[in-house]
Amino acid sequence: xxxxxxxxxxxxxxxxxxxxxxxxxxxxxxxxxxxxxxxxxxxxxxxxxxxxxxxxxxxxxxxxxxxxxxxxxxxxxxxxxxxxxxxxxxxxxxxxxxxxxxxxxxxxxxxxxxxxxxxxxxxxxxxxxxxxxxxxxxxxxxxxxxxxxxxxxxxxxxxxxxxxxxxxxxxxxxxxx
Length: 177
Known about the structure:
Elements: E1 14-15, E2 33-36, H1 38-41, E3 46-53, E4 64-65, E5 70-76, E6 78-83, E7 86-91, E8 95-98, E9 107-111, E10 117-124, E11 129-133, E12 138-145, E13 154-161
Antiparallel strand pairs: 1-2, 2-3, 3-10, 4-11, 5-8, 5-10, 6-7, 6-9, 11-12, 12-13
């Protein structure tokens, strides 16, 4: 077993990889540095990461989880969390519960302070997961698959809108293949 302890002062926060940076105007709204610490600690059923958000930005779009529950602990800084239709101020020391559900549990943390906002996010790690994005009308399906033959992790990811669905039998007839 790996050492089950890490001090947050020893955690290196890294920017998103280039292939995961928000494009165009979204880059003006979203920015974060993160460190996923659960796997290195040996966690199996919970995910933990530390997120740092610069002033005026949010790390992620407004979203809800249909399967997993999240908890945030604000380590430093101040901001607001939007949950459902309400906004609540947050500051260092605050604990925030975000249970699974629909639009009423959608959430987003934004940094409204003058310094960096840092928080610890803890979530269940159930797969598959469905996330709703009420502001943009999107949904995402995410699943962790069995590892590839070489041992590398594999994932299924699909982003769409309800209006873009196809029928279950679409393309299944011999004349359609």
